[in-house]
Design a protein that fits this description.
single chain; mainly alpha; Cytochrome Bc1 Complex, Chain D, domain 2; binds heme C
Length: 197
Amino acid sequence: MRHNLSGITKITGMVAALALSGVVVSCVKENDPVAQNGVTGAIAKLLGGDSSQTKVQYVPDMADSPTLKPQENFLEPPEGSVATTAMLYPKTVEEAEASLKNPLPAEPQVLALGEKTFNTFCIPCHGAAAKGDGSITDIYPKPPDITSEAYQKRGDGFFFYRITFGANIMPGYGHATMPHERWATVHYLRKLQGVSK
Ligand code: HEC
């Protein structure tokens, strides 16, 4: 009972405070030329002028700042600058294969994520078992069987790079997937290949 009462008191207090602040804000706004006409309006009013007739701009409030047209570019970043959130990838597939290691363990959760990602992005072309017999291969060039021995021998970084950037006529999926989803897909591909790495 005591608990309930204090709750109600709290709510009543909050409602009263909100109502009061609303009144204060609206009062301030009504008498505030800055809220109505910006700094120029405030100065004009102080000097006794009519702000709608003001010809001289004092502190123009960014009214004349340069604007960009749609699709126009900002300045190019200085050479060599890197976004603080950027991930740097090796430049070539060979470098990727030699240097990248799968950071995720081949655990059930990871494999499930890999399966989901594969079945979302890869299945139409590569087929459910990655044999290259996806449902659109009657109209799109047939991909290779990526469970074959030649592909079993490729390093994890090779697959990660291919998923990220694509391969010849295969589109890349780096824009559509997070790095951990791609690494999970690599684990799932290993499962389809029957190889554990
Ligand atoms: C639109 C169809 C399509 C989709 C979707 C697709 N691929 Fe491919 N993939 C291809 C084709 C076609 C090739 C053969 C490319 C070539 O060599 O020209 C290929 C090649 C590959 C290769 C071999 C690359 C090489 O250098 O030998 C791998 C690995 C691969 N795909 C993995 C994937 C994975 C994983 C996904 C899903 C994230 C995916 N692909 C999605 C069509 C597709």
